[in-house]
Design goal:
Two copies of one chain form a homodimer.
Chain A: E1 18-22, H1 26-29, H2 32-38, E2 41-45, H3 68-75, E3 80-83, H4 90-98, H5 107-114, H6 116-125, E4 133-136, H7 139-149, E5 153-156, E6 167-170, H8 177-181, E7 185-189, E8 195-203, E9 209-211, E10 215-220, E11 223-229, H9 236-253, E12 257-265, E13 271-277, H10 287-290, H11 295-303, E14 317-324, H12 332-341, E15 346-349, E16 359-367, H13 370-385
Parallel strand pairs in A: 1-2, 1-3
Antiparallel strand pairs in A: 4-7, 5-6, 5-7, 8-9, 8-10, 8-12, 10-11, 11-14, 12-13, 14-16, 15-16
Chain lengths: 390, 390
């Protein structure tokens, strides 16, 4: 049979818990290996039978994350429920809480990952540096903000955006018109920065927290293409400031599980917060091969309130490069080639069909020299993508 | 539903292959994470719905590995078939080959892992050092061999033994009587040795091979309890001899996938071969956390004839300690304690019910000092087992 009924979670012996993840994308998929090693049972509520995580998890019922009944039925089998994405509606979260489900992170925290205006307000209250921003509903307000901070400005849909979607660089109020037609818009000054950084950490319900080293992220067209861990030549004082900000945000907002804070490094000494995510994050994929405890294992430990693992890097430098979909659906021969060319490259694929620009996997490579590692990681990713052929 | 029909393998897009493993124990289970990361589909023929691997693999039909029809039906969905254990009978292997299944290792190689007399004969032909041995069928032959090599002698059932089962230390012909009643017996001299070593390597069908560093293994009552990688203070010349012997055995016997060769280190300069296994092996569990490429990923790459990954250790020393079942079924609280006590310990559990002496998991810990690492690994394993409580 090609579409079997999905089983209930098959609990392992000895009282080990079942972790349910709402959403069946690659972040849920990459929890599967660590869950198996930890002796945990993983269940995934996927949007399709062949979703990335559903391919590799035994218990993966298909259901709509916006449908209260589907989500409640799923959660009834889980000891804790966590998330592959930020898109579960508030009413569904409220129904889960009312039904007694243990949600990690809790809706009160998750709202800051779902609503960029709420995030900007709260991070500002904490005194943590942010770009100048304003929530607006009219073109006149856009014009006013642009006159105040200078054009262009960044216009964002407060909810639902990712990988550059829902974000516009507005050079005039007209550029924000389409976003405004859909509802309130978050305006931010366009920050001039040296580079982008991210700090990733995990926090457990009992308040234990562990941060990985601050990383440098490289974006192209709004999509992360490369991460260098730790960020090369980062001033230790700035690293400490950024890590402290991440830990404060996690504590003050009540985050549980993995938190990613993306930042702009203004001048090597100052930063502003760009975005938050309360789940494993692309900026932490390096940790799967480059740290004692990878982000997917750590997320599982955190949401279960298990003691956290060491975030210590296991190599001086690890570079991650995302593999984006190219023009060719068949990538197996390129993947073979990459393995043959560089036996130290760790290839991670998500079981997703190729579409141009879609994240279909990533590679990690560890060593000493960030420049050389970056070249190797990029070569491997670009070769699998098909944009180079030697 | 608690006992769903098992689905056919859900192939990932882009022509990625399906690897089938006959047997659903922990070795198959530990392939699940690497298979997901490599974008491969894993299928497991398990002996029970709740077998170790069946808990974490989406496609895990229940079937008897000695039943031709079950095995053929399973293999029909797989691009390559490999093994969690040595116990698939020759007639089943022959039927698979006749049906066109791709078996890795092939039956012609696997026979040397299934039949210890065949192994002793072939390794001897290669001029690789072995204990003195003889295949016998009578008590008189046992007496003759004991008189020749000195008592006690080691008597082994040629087939089906593991973890010390099927092995007797015979101080007289009478001690081998029970084994003789079941068929021919392999007698070996009782070797006086300094310590036990193992060399683990992988070989692909096209002949590429990659060996991990030689490790020291510690056995108690015939069960491996600890592995130190690399073997401390191993003479480089002996390491090279042992590695060369492993690579020769793999090549000459046509082994594909992971090969483990267990050896006795006689005097720091000489060795004899003890046992072979043609699959991931307990002596390689350290590599999951201590090498660029772990043995489960490497086995998958090898059986698919993908280029092999680097076996380079990612830390100076990694120590593995097996977690054996103790008196208590509930181990979750001890596992929490171990995580809290030592955030660098990597805990791996197999989803198996606790029975005294049964291997239910292992821990790895990496660092610089083998003595300190051994103490930490042993403490964690013993604590989870319940033989210490602080």
């Amino acid at each position: 049979m090609d579409r079997p009924a999905s089983p209930r979670p098959l609990r392992s012996p000895g009282g080990f818990p079942v972790v349910g993840i709402i959403g069946g994308g690659q972040l849920a998929r990459m929890c599967a290996g660590p869950a198996a090693e930890l002796g945990l049972t993983l269940a995934v509520l996927a949007d399709a039978h062949d979703a990335s995580a559903a391919q590799v998890v035994r218990c993966a019922p298909v259901g709509d994350h916006t449908d209260v009944e589907s989500v409640l039925s799923f959660a009834a089998d889980c000891d804790v429920v966590t998330f592959d994405h930020e898109h579960v509606p508030a009413d569904v979260l409220a129904a889960l809480e009312a039904a007694g489900a243990i949600l990690q992170p809790a809706p009160a925290a998750l709202t800051y990952a779902q609503d960029k205006v709420a995030m900007r307000t709260r991070v500002g209250e904490l005194g943590i540096p942010s770009p100048r921003w304003r929530a607006v509903t009219s073109a006149a307000q856009v014009a006013d903000f642009g006159a105040q901070v200078g054009w262009p400005v960044i216009a964002k849909a407060p909810r639902g955006g990712y990988d550059g979607k829902g974000v516009v660089v507005a050079r005039s109020p007209e550029d924000a018109a389409a976003l405004l037609a859909a509802g309130p818009v978050l305006l931010e000054e366009k920050v001039v920065f040296q580079r982008e950084l991210a700090v990733l950490l995990a926090r457990s319900p009992s308040g234990q927290a562990a941060a990985w080293p601050v990383v440098e992220t490289v974006q192209e067209d709004g999509i992360c293409t490369e991460v260098i861990a730790p960020a090369p030549d980062l001033d230790p004082h700035l690293a400490a400031l950024v890590t402290h900000a991440g830990l404060r945000i996690a504590g003050e907002l009540g985050v549980t599980g993995v938190l990613a804070v993306e930042l702009f490094d203004i001048d090597g000494e100052h930063f502003v917060v760009n975005e938050l995510a309360m789940r494993p994050h692309n900026s932490g994929h390096w940790s799967m091969d480059g740290a004692v405890t990878g982000q997917f294992e750590q997320h599982l430990r955190a949401v279960l309130d298990l003691p956290l693992g060491s975030p210590r890097p296991s190599a001086p430098v690890t570079v991650m490069a995302n593999i984006l979909g190219g023009e060719h659906e068949e990538v197996y021969s390129a993947y073979r080639h990459v393995m043959a060319r560089d036996p130290e490259v760790k290839v991670h694929l998500y079981g997703k069909g190729v579409r141009p620009g879609r994240k279909i996997g990533h590679v990690n490579v560890s060593g000493d020299d960030p420049v050389a590692l970056s070249a190797r990681a990029r070569h491997a990713a670009d070769f699998i993508r098909g944009v180079i052929d030697e």
